[in-house]
Amino acid sequence: QDCVVSVWVTCQPKALVVVRDLFKEDVLDLSWAADGSTLLCCSMDGSVAAIQIEPHEVGTPLPPAEQAARLSQLYGAAAAAGAADLPLSADLLALEAAAAQPPPPAPRRAAAGPAVPPPTPP
């Protein structure tokens, strides 16, 4: 089991920080808080932790408007809209694409006369 949280700065050859024994079970998810310097962590054991990192260690967070502008410039307007617009899985993306397609035309049925001949007059 890997119960370790490590934070990397891309331009550095080593991790900025490695936190061991923070959790008893695997780390499930990490997310930066809105302040840009608090890393929130949760574990399979049900516990959560907040790791405070000083801005001089990772850089000053961009204001939201500037962050959106840079994301839009790099990846297009959809990326700047945020993670809420991202598909959760490839299967979901395929389902959404299929739902956007018009339905195929109904099969044509050959014109046929009545299946039962009309009754003959007495």
Automatic annotation (TrEMBL):
One of its GO terms (molecular function) is nucleosome binding. InterPro entries: HIR1-like, WD40_repeat_dom_sf. SUPFAM superfamilies: WD40 repeat-like. One of its GO terms (cellular component) is HIR complex. It comes from the Eukaryota. GO terms for biological process: chromatin remodeling; DNA-templated transcription. Residues 99-122 are annotated as: Disordered. PANTHER family: MEMBER OF THE HIR1 FAMILY OF WD-REPEAT PROTEINS, PROTEIN HIRA. This is Uncharacterized protein. It comes from Emiliania huxleyi.
